[in-house]
Amino acid sequence: QVQLVESGGGLVQPGASLRLSCAASGSRFSTYAMGWYRQAPGEQRELVASITSGGVTNYEDSVKGRFIISRDNAQKTIYLQMNSLKPEDTAVYYCAAARTVVTGRLYNFASWGQGTQVTVSS
Predict the structure, then answer these.
(1) Percentage of the chain surpassing pLDDT 90?
(2) With bands split at pLDDT 50, 70 and 90, how would you rate the model's confidence at 117?
(3) Do 97 and 53 touch, CB atoms closer than 8 A?
(4) CA separation, residue 29 to residues 48, 50, 78, 90, 100 (Å)
(5) In angstroms, rounded to a whole number, what is the distance separating the alpha carbons of residues 78 and 113?
(6) Which end of the chain, N or C, is less packed with Cβ atoms under 10 Å?
(7) Which of 75, 67, 71, 36 is nearest to 54 (CA)?
(8) Strand pairing of 116-120 and 10-12?
(9) Are the C-beta atoms of residues 107 and 35 closer than 8 Å to each other?
């Protein structure tokens, strides 16, 4: 029902910033809750940030105060502004669209993106 494509990843030094983008196709983008997940080597996937169709945001504790999730419904795009990056932020970042959101957690997924690599290293 919706296709997602992430972009904006790269190799940066600790303390740098990146902005990830997730472009959506389809007619129902504005109705979905959206989220950014990440998966580091040898680790489980974790939810980094989410945003409801109404713009309510939620963040994983380790990124609070550093990352900002936003959405532009006119452009059918969500963003993850990543500031003060740390080596432990290194992961493949995925965006997801969901039909259900409960206290920041996403359920009943409509689609996942292909992922974009973020590497934070000195």
Answers:
(1) 98
(2) very high
(3) no
(4) 20, 14, 10, 28, 13
(5) 12
(6) C
(7) 71
(8) parallel
(9) no
